[in-house]
Amino acid sequence: MSYTATAVIASNGQITLPAAIRERLGVKEGDRLSFALADSGELTVTAIHRRSIFEDLDALQLPSLGRPLTQKDIDDAIGEEMKAQELRIRNQNT
Is the pTM of this model over 0.70? Predict the structure, then answer.
């Protein structure tokens, strides 16, 4: 099903996206819209959803340590990844 709606351009150039279109795109405050204007004059609007790193946290299958995660565990993991990244960068430059 296609959707059509109209909006009025305010004096400052802003428009209010009609509720039916917002709902269909699944956009909310903070999301962005990408506009592509073809030479024919056809305008395509694509929703760019703002994502939180916590949205899909339950879907992650993190390995269990058999105990609660500590700040030291996090710091150690970051340190290991930084070392690995440095090695990758050095290998690219050789």
Answer: no
